[in-house]
Amino acid sequence: MKIEIWSDILCPFCYIGKRRLEGALAKFAHADQVQVEWRSFELDPNADPTPGENQYVRLARKYGNTEDWARQMSANMAQMAAEEGLAFDFDKLVPANSLDAHRLIHLATRHGRQDAAEERLFKAYLEQGLDINDHAVLTRLGADLGLPEPEVAALLSSDQFEQEVRHDEYEARQIGVRGVPYFVFADKYAVSGAQPAELFAEVLEKAWGETQPRHEAIAGADGAACRLDGSNC
User: Fold this and answer.
1) pTM to 2 decimal places
2) N or C, which terminus of the chain has less Cβ within 10 Å?
């Protein structure tokens, strides 16, 4: 059974959603038969970060609010992340454009390291305060993932995999994705947002039950997610 996840490295909810889905999968009897496929989605494709600007100033400007408000929002997000074992550090976060990070993930996919790349880049951006706009940083992250250095260098000196990123985003538009994380289970059920692990567990059971005729779906899963055709919502 396949799970597709549209996600952006810049999205704190996407990292939280990853952990919650992993929690559900850890208790799912058929987890070894689940294939997770990450899809690219840029929350702000035109992002052009101002050098030296911190996350709080950027958020305040984006939403027309105060820096104090931005700090409180970020503290709330960090607390939510901590409940999932994550250590967000918004004081160190370097605002970024995520296109090159997505392209690096596509390269990692070619080498069977897609999930590892998502994890490494989330951690780099949200926990370690690394500048994912910096090609030297992306080169080091590629080395961490065991990617061939010449291939990473070629990637960063070209527009390789940009079309693949655009294709992922085109498919997102076709199925009505407006924000991330966005999870599609077995091409049948969609879940938007970093939902609780319990909801993911329900959808896993329901999707599995419908893709495996002899397996009975759990009771109470109806309404846990919307079908991609908009029914059962």
Assistant:
1) 0.90
2) C
What six digits make up the tokens of 228?
């991609």
List 7's β-bridge partners, or say none.
Answer: 40
Among residues 107, 54, 163, the alpha carbon closest in space to that of 118 is found at 107
Question: CA 29 to CA 73: how far, in whole Å?
Answer: 37
Q: Would you state the pLDDT for residue 212? A: 79
Extended beta strands in 86-202, E state: 182-185, 189-192
Q: Is the dihedral of CA 174, 177, 181, 185 positive or negative?
A: negative
Is 200 exposed, middle or buried (CB count within 10 Å of its CB: 0-12, 13-18, 19+)? buried
Q: Residue 89: exposed, middle, or buried by beta-carbon count in 10 A (0-12, 13-18, 19+)? A: middle
232 residue type, one letter: N
Q: Coil, strand or helix: which one is 44? A: coil
Residue 36, beta-bridge partner list? 3
